[in-house]
Design brief:
There is one protein chain. The chain is extended and about 55 Å long. The longest helix has 27 residues. Helix 2 packs across helix 4. It has 95 residues and is mostly helical. The protein has one domain. It is built from four helices and no strands.
């Protein structure tokens, strides 16, 4: 006997399929960009433009208010740069 699926079940399955297709196409397009555009560096410069150069100070202040010792801006930048350029490496001081 064949199991019947509800309309909502079919919609959920179709949604999952579309999400996977979108995610893989996004990853493929990021790989095509390669090392020409480093995503973390672009985001860091954009934040710097929006905050008039006070981005790291604001992020550190918010991190301290939330109980963190560091804003981890450098770690985020390096991680995002490695998304677009797997060969990218930079040493990060954790202190």
């Amino acid at each position: 006997m064949k199991k019947r699926t509800s309309i909502m079940g079919m919609i959920k399955n179709q949604f999952k399929t579309w999400c996977l297709i979108y995610w893989y196409s996004f990853k493929r397009s990021i790989r095509k960009i390669g090392c020409f555009i480093r995503l973390g560096s672009i985001l860091e410069h954009t934040i710097g433009l929006i905050t008039l150069g006070w981005g790291k100070h604001v992020a550190s202040w918010v991190a301290r208010k939330l109980g963190y010792s560091n804003c981890y801006c450098d770690r985020r930048r390096v991680t995002m740069n490695q998304w677009t350029c797997p060969d990218y490496s930079e040493t990060i001081s954790i202190i």
